[in-house]
Amino acid sequence: MIQKQKPISSHTPQFLNPKKILQQLGIEQNMTVADLGCGSGYLTFEAAKLVGMSGKVYAVDVQKSVLSGIKSDISLFGARNVIPVWANLEILGSTHLEDNSVDVALLAVILYQSKQHEKILEEARRVLKPEGKLLIVDWKREGIPLGPELKYRISYDVIKQKAENTGFKFVQDIKTDPYHYGILFRK
C-alpha cells in the first residue's frame, strides 16, 4: 500500500486536487482504473490508494521518460498496484488493454494536446466495461489566464458532444478548480 504522499513535481497542475476529483467518481477497492495520458501520475497514485492492493491502475502515456518517472515512484512509494503502459492513445488498441476490462478511465488535461479526440475517446470506450465511467478534465476556454494558448483548448460543449458522438452518456459535471472543467460519462 502507498505509505507516503507522492511529491508534487514541476509538471503537476498544483491547482487540481486529485483526491477531491477522484472522490466524486465512486472509485472503490478492487476496481481497475486506466489513467490515459497519466503524465507525472498526479491522478494515478491517488487512484491507486482508492482501489487498494486488490485493484489496479494502468498509468498510460506516450512519453517513455514520463513512464520512467512513474516506475521510480512505484518503487519509492510501494504502489505495486500501478502498471505503467506505453501507448499512443491516437491509435485504437495501442494500450493493449483488454476490451471491457476497466471500471474507470481518466482523460485528465490530455485532449487539448491532440487533434485526434475521437480516436482517444474510442480507445477509452473500448477498454471500459459496460456502464464503466469516463472522466474528462481539461482547460476551460474562457477567461482563464493560465494554461495553453486559447487555440489549443477545447470547449466544454465540444468535448461533451464528441464524447456523446462516441457513444458515451453524460452523467454529471465534476468539480475541479477555476481553470478546468470536469465531465463524467458512462459507457
The CATH homologous superfamily: Vaccinia Virus protein VP39
If classified by CATH, what would the architecture be? Answer: 3-Layer(aba) Sandwich
The residue fraction in helices comes out at 25-40%
CATH-defined fold name:
Rossmann fold
Instruction: Quote the distance from N terminus to C terminus.
Output: 30 Å
Secondary-structure class = alpha/beta
Number of beta-strand segments: 7
C-alpha Rg (nearest Å): 15 Å
Question: What number is the mean pLDDT?
Answer: 90
SSE layout and pairing:
Elements: H1 18-23, E1 32-36, H2 44-51, E2 56-61, H3 64-77, E3 82-86, E4 102-108, H4 117-127, E5 128-139, H5 156-165, E6 169-177, E7 180-186
Parallel strand pairs: 1-2, 1-4, 2-3, 4-5
Antiparallel strand pairs: 5-7, 6-7
What does this structure look like?
The protein is α/β, with parallel strands linked by helices. The protein has a single domain (18-186), classed as Vaccinia Virus protein VP39 (Rossmann fold). The protein contains 5 helices and 7 strands, in the order αβαβαββαβαββ. It has a 7-stranded mixed β-sheet, sandwiched between helices. It is globular and about 40 Å long. It starts with 17 loop residues before the first helix and ends with a strand. Residues 1-13 have low confidence and may be disordered.
